[in-house]
């Protein structure tokens, strides 16, 4: 029987990969990726899901774009880690995961699909984690690379999903505490979700 790999808040961490200022004018749908990421971070706050952020060579490529609201996460923003590796699974990130033995699932979003997202996903899968890549939360400077990278991740055992599907799976129950706030976020983000979907999902039928 194939693995189901359901998302459970207490067993999940969000990985935000390299959404930095220097990429803004080069990444396809950069603004829409940011919209999706901010939605995911709002849900992380409601469901108390930790968030790990990386920045690829920030001295050259800048820091995480200020359009992404990390401040409101408070202690749920576990760390922002500088890296040279393309993969997010640096020694520092390995230590974070090692200290959180309950984590089984990594929800991954950011850039670029064919480089840092792909290599992060493969390393995490190899390390035994269920990896869920948010298809409307990843992109590349070359649009055509994106579906190929996502297909490669799926071939290796990763799960390709959308922001809407993932957050509802994490919330799970309309009767659970916090659903009212969760629901208000979904309504508030409705137009942004549609905008990101139209920009980033329309050509991914290959998946």
From TrEMBL:
Presence of the UniProt keyword Zinc in the record: no
Xref: Gene3D superfamilies: Isochorismatase-like
Domain Isochorismatase-like positions: 12-164
Keyword Hydrolase found: yes
Keywords annotated in UniProt: Hydrolase
Superkingdom of origin: Eukaryota
Matches recorded under PANTHER family: HYDROLASE, ISOCHORISMATASE DOMAIN-CONTAINING PROTEIN 2
Protein name (Swiss-Prot/TrEMBL): Isochorismatase hydrolase
Protein source organism: Rhizopogon vinicolor AM-OR11-026
